[in-house]
C-alpha cells in the first residue's frame, strides 16, 4: 500500500510539475556544446519538467555541432522554446528553428545561415545543399516556411510570395528574397512571416507569453567535465595536443626503452581522441585505427627488436586516425578537407621542429649527460669513479630483462643496468661485460657452443 501511494505521488508530481529548465547557448557553437545540451535535455525529461528554454545569443559556429543539438531538440517530448536574446545567426538559426516556439527580443535578428569556411569563403555546393535542406526540413517539422529557411542559406534563391497558413502572401520587405542576398529577419519580420511566435524582452515577459508565470526556473550550466571537453576540442588546443602527441612519440622512437616522452605523447593523443569521441567528431573506426596504431607501436618498442614494418605500420595508423579526427561527420567539400590537411600538416611540422629544438636543449642538460655519460671522465680533469665497476670488465652474467638495447643484467655480485652493442639480447641470455665508462656498462651476448662442435 505504501509503495502504491508513493508511486501515485511521484506520478502526480510528474504530471503537475512547474519546473522550467533554462539553458544558455551563447558565443561560438563548438563540438563541446552538444554533450551539455543532450545531458540537460535528458535531465529535464527524467525530472518531468514542463518546458526547456534555450536562451540564444550567437553568431554561429560549427554546422556539425548545431546539427547534433538540433537532433537532440527535435527528439525531445518536452516543450522547447528558443528565446533569441539579440541574435541567432548561422548555426544559431538552425538550433532556433528546431524549437517548437521562438520568441525574440526587440531589435533581434535571425538568419544568414550559409555555410562558410574559417576564412569566410562560401562552402561548396555539396555543403550548401546539405545546410539548405537541413534548415528547410527543420522549418517544415515545426510548421514554418521552408522557402524562408532555404533563403537563409542560399543567396541564389529568389521569390516573391510564400505560402502562409494556406494563403499566398506577397513578400516585399525582405531584402534576401532577391537573388544574391541572404535572408536575415528582424524581430518584426520574423513575427510577420511566422518564423517567430512573438516578442519578449526578458524571461518574465516570455513566461507571461507562454502562460507560465510563476513557474520555477532552473538555470543549467556546464559541469566541470563538459567545460574540459569544450576546452580540449578548441581548435588551438586540439592542434597543440596533436603536436605534442607527435613530438612525444617521435622523441621516444629516438631513445631506447619507454620513458617520459612516450608517456606524454600517448597522453596527448588519448586526450585528443577521447574528447573528439565525446564530441562525436571521432567515430568507432577512428578509435580502432588509433588503438591499433598505438598497440603496434608499443609492440615494436617493447617486444620486437629494432624498428621495422610493425612500428612503421603503427605510426602511419596513428597519423591517419589523427587526420580523420579533423573531418566532421557531415557532408563536406574540398575546402574543409583542405583545412583538415593544412591543420594536420602544421601539427606534423610543429612536432618535427619541436623535436629538433627539444633534442638540442635536452642534450645540453646535466640530466641527459648523467643518464647517457656521452663523455669519458678523465683523471687529469679531477674526476674519479665512485662506482667501482671497472673490475667487472670480462665477467659474465645473465640478462635479467630483454636488452632493447638497454636493460638489466645479473652478475654474481649484483644487478646492473647495461647496454648492448646495439643488438637485441633476449632475457636469460648469457652476456659478457665488454667495457665500463662511468655508469655506462656495455655488454655482448655470449653464444654458448655445444660439446663436440
Topology (elements, then pairings):
Blueprint: H1 2-15, E1 19-26, H2 33-47, E2 51-58, H3 63-74, E3 79-89, H4 91-97, E4 101-104, E5 109-111, H5 125-141, H6 146-151, E6 161-164, E7 167-170, E8 184-186, H7 187-192, E9 198-199, H8 203-209, E10 216-219, H9 224-232, H10 235-253, H11 260-278, H12 284-302, H13 309-325, H14 334-363, H15 366-372, E11 396-399, E12 406-410, E13 415-420, E14 430-437, E15 440-445
Helix pairs in contact: 2-3, 3-4, 10-11, 10-14, 12-13
Summarize the structure.
With 453 residues, the chain is of the alpha/beta class. It has helices spanning 2-15, 33-47, 63-74, 91-97, 125-141, 146-151, 187-192, 203-209, 224-232, 235-253, 260-278, 284-302, 309-325, 334-363, 366-372, and strands at 19-26, 51-58, 79-89, 101-104, 109-111, 161-164, 167-170, 184-186, 198-199, 216-219, 396-399, 406-410, 415-420, 430-437, 440-445.
Structure write-up:
By secondary structure, the protein is an alpha/beta fold. The protein folds into three domains: 17-224, 2-enoyl-CoA Hydratase, Chain A, domain 1 (Alpha-Beta Complex), CATH 3.90.226.10; 235-363, no CATH class; 379-445, OB fold (Dihydrolipoamide Acetyltransferase, E2P), CATH 2.40.50.140. 45% of the residues lie in helices and 18% in strands. It contains 15 helices and 15 strands. The strands form three sheets. Strands 1, 2, 3, 4, 5, 8, 9 and 10 form an eight-stranded mixed β-sheet that branches. Helix 3 links the parallel strand 2 (51-58) and strand 3 (79-89). The longest helix has 30 residues, at 334-363. The radius of gyration is 32 Å and the shape is elongated. It starts with a helix and ends in an 8-residue tail after the last strand. The model is unreliable at 1-14 and 331-335 (pLDDT under 50).
Amino acid at each position: 500500500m505504501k509503495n502504491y501511494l508513493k508511486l501515485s505521488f511521484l506520478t502526480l508530481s510528474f504530471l503537475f510539475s512547474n519546473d522550467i529548465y533554462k539553458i544558455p547557448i551563447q558565443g561560438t557553437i563548438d563540438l563541446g556544446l552538444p554533450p551539455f545540451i543532450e545531458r540537460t535535455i535528458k535531465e529535464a525529461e527524467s525530472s518531468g519538467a514542463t518546458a526547456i528554454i534555450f536562451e540564444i545569443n550567437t553568431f554561429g559556429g560549427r554546422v556539425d555541432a548545431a546539427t547534433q543539438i538540433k537532433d537532440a531538440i527535435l527528439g525531445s517530448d518536452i516543450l522547447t522554446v528558443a528565446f533569441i536574446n539579440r541574435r541567432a545567426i548561422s548555426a544559431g538559426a538552425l538550433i532556433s528553428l528546431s524549437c517548437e516556439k521562438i520568441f525574440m527580443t526587440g531589435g533581434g535578428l535571425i538568419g544568414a545561415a550559409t555555410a562558410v569556411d574559417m576564412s569566410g569563403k562560401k562552402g561548396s555546393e555539396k555543403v550548401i545543399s546539405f545546410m539548405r535542406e537541413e534548415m528547410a526540413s527543420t522549418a517544415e517539422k515545426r510548421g514554418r516556411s521552408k522557402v524562408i529557411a532555404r533563403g537563409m542559406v542560399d543567396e541564389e534563391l529568389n521569390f516573391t510570395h510564400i505560402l502562409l497558413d494556406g494563403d499566398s502572401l506577397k513578400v516585399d520587405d525582405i531584402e534576401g528574397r532577391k537573388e544574391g542576398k541572404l535572408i536575415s529577419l528582424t524581430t518584426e519580420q520574423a513575427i510577420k512571416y511566422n518564423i517567430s511566435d512573438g516578442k519578449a524582452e526578458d524571461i518574465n515577459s516570455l513566461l507571461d507569453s507562454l502562460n507560465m508565470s510563476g513557474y520555477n526556473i532552473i538555470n543549467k550550466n556546464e559541469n566541470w567535465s563538459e567545460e574540459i571537453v569544450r576546452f580540449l576540442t578548441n581548435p588551438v588546443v586540439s592542434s597543440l595536443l596533436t603536436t605534442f602527441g607527435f613530438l612525444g612519440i617521435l622523441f621516444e622512437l629516438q631513445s631506447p626503452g619507454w620513458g617520459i616522452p612516450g608517456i606524454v605523447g600517448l597522453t596527448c593523443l588519448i586526450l585528443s581522441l577521447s574528447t573528439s569521441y565525446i564530441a562525436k567528431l571521432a567515430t568507432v573506426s577512428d578509435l580502432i585505427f588509433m588503438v591499433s596504431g598505438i598497440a603496434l607501436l608499443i609492440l615494436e618498442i617493447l617486444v620486437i627488436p629494432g624498428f621495422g614494418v610493425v612500428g612503421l605500420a603503427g605510426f602511419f595508423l596513428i597519423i591517419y586516425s589523427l587526420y580523420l579526427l579533423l573531418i566532421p561527420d557531415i557532408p563536406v567539400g574540398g575546402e574543409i578537407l583542405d583545412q583538415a590537411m593544412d591543420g594536420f600538416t602544421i601539427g606534423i611540422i610543429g612536432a618535427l621542429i619541436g623535436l629538433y629544438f627539444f633534442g638540442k636543449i635536452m642534450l645540453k642538460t646535466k640530466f641527459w649527460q648523467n643518464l647517457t655519460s656521452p663523455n669519458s671522465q678523465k683523471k687529469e680533469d679531477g674526476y674519479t669513479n665512485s662506482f667501482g665497476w671497472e673490475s667487472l670488465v670480462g665477467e659474465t652474467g645473465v640478462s635479467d630483462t630483454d636488452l632493447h638495447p638497454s636493460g638489466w643484467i645479473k652478475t654474481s655480485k649484483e644487478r646492473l643496468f647495461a647496454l648492448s652493442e646495439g643488438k637485441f639480447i633476449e632475457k636469460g641470455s648469457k652476456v659478457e661485460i665488454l667495457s665500463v665508462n662511468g655508469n655506462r656498462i656495455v655488454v655482448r651476448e655470449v653464444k654458448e657452443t655445444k660439446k663436440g662442435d
